[in-house]
Amino acid sequence: MMSSEEELTSSTPSLPPPSAHFVGRKEDLVQAKRVTRLVGGRDVLVLCHKGQFHAMDMRCYHSGGPLQEGDIEEFDGRICIVCPWHKYKITLAEGKGLYQAVNPSATPPKPTWRSKGVKQRVHKVTEVNKNVYVTINDSLDPIDSDFYQTERYRTTMNKAQPKNKK
């Protein structure tokens, strides 16, 4: 038997959650496939893959690579975005970093996919009345991608950008 809270979350909501931020119309986001937005002070990538929306910090946890330019691929049954800079694989659903490991004592050695744990902060996406909203994951547990959301990083990044000459 479902609790009343489960019934509310399993039915289609008519109002977005109170802490949700509007990121676009469903039709526009489906067509764009990927957009970046400043949401609640965070740089967020919102993407639509096979009809499902996902949201995560837009810079890769490893070195700040632009995930909006990454390919979507499947590894061991898990859908990932692949950072274009260093090919780090991040699951869309949980933000886990994946890598291949080999047991050297196995004969023959066979690579298997392993998780490094959650490395990329993922955010909740809600669709209400053909509009898409993101609720920021404000868990206090630190996640590696948090570094690229700091004012210190943004200041450093802006100083490193070449100035446009007129």
TrEMBL record:
Keywords on record: 2Fe-2S, Acetylation, Iron, Iron-sulfur, Metal-binding, Phosphoprotein, Repeat
Report the domain of life of the source organism.
Eukaryota
Enumerate the residue ranges of region (Disordered): 1-22
Matching PROSITE patterns: RIESKE
Rieske domain segment(s): 20-86
**Matching SUPFAM superfamilies, A to Z?**
ISP domain
Q: Which Gene3D superfamilies has this protein been placed in?
A: Rieske [2Fe-2S] iron-sulphur domain (2.102.10.10)
On whether Metal-binding is a keyword of this UniProt record, the answer is: yes
Q: Which GO terms describe its molecular function?
A: 2 iron, 2 sulfur cluster binding; metal ion binding
Q: What is this protein called?
A: Rieske domain-containing protein
Q: From which source organism is this entry?
A: Esox lucius (Northern pike)
**Upper lineage ranks?**
Eukaryota, Metazoa, Chordata, Craniata, Vertebrata
Q: Which gene encodes it?
A: RFESD
